[in-house]
C-alpha cells in the first residue's frame, strides 16, 4: 500500500511539472486523472463500507466450554460493483476457530457472497463476544484501507465443562478419608446434621437447633458421616476479563469435577460458595448436582465476596466441620483460610487446598501448624486432568 501511494504521489508531481512547464491537453488530462484517481478510490471505499453485509450464526441453544460449536459466517456483496479486498478478524482471546485465520482476503463479485462453515471452541465459562471482531476493506488501487468494528458481534453464554475424573492424582484418598475420632467438644457436631426435606419431625434436635440458629436433626444409628466439604471462593481478582475469566473458570471447573467424582464414588458432597450470602448445596444425587451446576453456570464473582465471609459462615455450621475431608478452592491464600484449615485439622479433618494462580510464590510452604493440609497450585491454563 505504501508503494502504491508513493507511485501515485510521484505521478502527481510529474503531472504537475508537465502542466507548469509544458501545458497542453495531454498534460492537463494526465494531471486531472492522477488527481481524481485517489478521490474516486476513496469514494469507492465508502460505498463498499455502506453496502457490505456480514451474517454469522452459532448452531445450538446451550453452549459448553471446550466443546466444538458449529459456526458459519457469510460475507455478502449486495451492490452492483465488485469488492476488491475484504478481510475479517476474529475474537481470539476467549475462543478459537477451526481452519480459519485472521486476515484472509476475499474478493466478491456483484450480488454474490462467500460462506465459511467451521466450528468454534470457547475456552471459558461466562458471557462474552465471539466470531468476527473487525472488518478491513481495501480499494482497487491499494491506496486506502479502512478497518471498522463489527456492529453485530455474537454474544454467547458459555456454561462450564464438567471434567470426568477417574482418580485424584497425588492425593491418598483412603488416608484422608480415614478420620481421627478423638475430638474435644464435638459430640453435638457428630450426632446432628442439617435438616433435609423428608426428615421426620421427631428427629429434630431442638437444643442443638436453638444453639446453632438453624434446624438440625439427629443422625440415625450407624449413619456414618463420610462427607466431603467443598468451599469455593468467589472473590474476583481483577476488573479485566482476560485476567479474571481464566481463574474463575478453572475454579468452577475444579468444584464441579470434584463434586461429580465423589458423587460417582457414592460419597455425598456439601458445597458452599459466597454470593450476597453463603449458599450451600447438599450433593447426593443427580438432581442436586444439576442444581449446583446451574448455580455455577450463572455465578457472578465479585471483589466484595471475600473468602473470610465464606469461612466465617462455614465455621458456624456443624456439618461443615464434621466431615472426613474438605477442599478449599481459592484464588489466594488468606489468614481466614489458614485459621479455618487449622480448626479442621484440629478436628481430625484433612484439608486439600487448590490455589488457582500462575504465581508459585503465592502458594505457602507446608506448615507444621497445618499437619493435615495439602497445598496444590493450579495454573489457570492447566488441564485439571493432569493436576487433579
At the fold tier of CATH, the topology name of the largest domain is Rossmann fold
By CATH, the superfamily of the largest domain comes out as von Willebrand factor, type A domain
List how many beta strands DSSP finds. Answer: 19
- Helical content class: 25-40%
> What percentage of amino acids are in beta strands?
25-35%
Give the CATH level 1 class of the largest domain. Answer: Alpha Beta
Radius of gyration using CA atoms only: 31 Å
Work out the count of structural domains: 3
For the biggest β-sheet, the strand order reads 16-15-14-17-18-19
Describe the global form: elongated
Order of helices and strands: HHEEEEEEEEEEEHHEHEEHEEHHEHEEH
Number of alpha- plus pi-helical segments: 10
Low-confidence stretches: 179-190
Mean pLDDT: 85
- What's the CATH architecture of the largest domain? 3-Layer(aba) Sandwich
Going by helix content, strand content and strand pairing, the class is alpha/beta
Largest sheet: 6 strands, mixed
* N- to C-terminal distance: 52 Å
Amino acid at each position: 500500500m505504501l508503494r502504491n501511494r508513493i507511485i501515485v504521489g510521484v505521478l502527481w508531481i510529474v503531472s504537475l511539472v508537465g502542466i507548469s512547464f509544458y501545458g497542453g491537453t495531454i498534460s492537463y488530462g494526465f494531471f486531472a486523472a492522477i488527481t481524481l484517481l485517489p478521490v474516486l478510490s476513496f469514494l469507492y471505499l465508502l460505498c463498499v463500507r455502506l453496502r457490505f453485509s456480514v451474517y454469522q450464526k452459532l448452531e445450538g441453544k446451550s453452549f459448553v466450554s471446550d466443546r466444538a460449536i458449529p459456526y458459519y459466517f457469510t460475507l455478502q456483496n449486495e451492490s452492483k460493483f465488485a469488492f476488491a479486498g475484504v478481510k475479517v478478524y476474529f475474537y481470539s482471546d476467549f475462543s478459537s476457530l477451526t481452519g480459519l485465520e485472521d486476515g484472509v482476503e476475499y474478493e466478491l463479485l456483484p450480488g454474490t457472497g462467500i460462506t465459511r462453515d467451521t466450528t468454534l471452541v470457547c475456552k471459558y465459562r461466562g458471557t462474552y463476544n465471539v466470531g468476527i471482531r473487525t472488518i478491513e476493506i481495501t480499494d482497487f488501487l491499494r491506496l486506502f484501507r479502512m478497518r471498522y468494528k463489527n456492529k453485530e458481534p455474537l454474544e454467547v453464554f458459555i456454561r462450564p465443562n464438567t471434567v470426568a475424573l477417574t482418580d485424584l492424582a497425588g492425593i491418598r484418598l483412603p488416608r484422608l478419608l480415614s478420620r481421627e475420632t478423638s475430638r474435644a467438644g464435638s459430640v453435638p457436631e457428630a450426632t446432628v446434621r442439617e435438616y433435609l426435606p423428608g426428615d421426620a419431625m421427631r428427629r429434630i434436635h431442638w437444643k442443638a437447633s436453638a444453639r446453632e440458629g438453624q434446624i438440625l436433626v439427629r443422625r440415625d444409628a450407624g449413619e456414618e458421616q463420610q462427607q466431603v466439604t467443598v468451599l469455593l471462593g468467589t472473590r474476583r481478582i481483577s476488573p479485566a476479563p482476560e485476567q479474571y475469566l481464566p481463574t474463575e473458570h478453572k475454579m468452577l471447573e475444579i468444584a464441579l469435577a470434584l463434586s461429580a467424582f465423589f458423587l460417582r464414588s457414592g460419597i455425598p458432597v456439601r458445597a458452599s460458595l459466597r454470593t450476597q450470602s453463603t449458599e450451600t448445596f447438599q450433593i447426593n444425587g443427580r438432581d442436586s448436582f444439576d442444581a449446583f451446576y446451574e448455580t455455577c453456570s450463572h455465578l457472578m464473582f465479585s471483589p466484595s465476596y471475600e473468602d473470610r465471609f465464606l469461612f466465617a459462615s462455614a465455621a458456624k455450621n456443624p456439618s461443615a466441620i464434621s466431615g472426613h475431608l474438605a477442599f478449599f478452592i481459592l484464588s489466594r491464600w488468606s489468614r481466614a483460610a489458614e485459621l479455618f484449615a487449622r480448626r479442621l485439622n484440629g478436628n481430625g479433618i484433612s484439608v486439600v487446598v487448590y490455589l488457582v494462580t500462575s504465581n508459585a510464590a503465592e502458594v505457602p510452604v507446608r506448615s507444621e501448624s497445618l499437619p493435615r493440609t495439602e497445598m496444590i497450585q493450579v495454573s489457570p491454563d492447566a488441564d485439571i486432568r493432569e493436576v487433579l
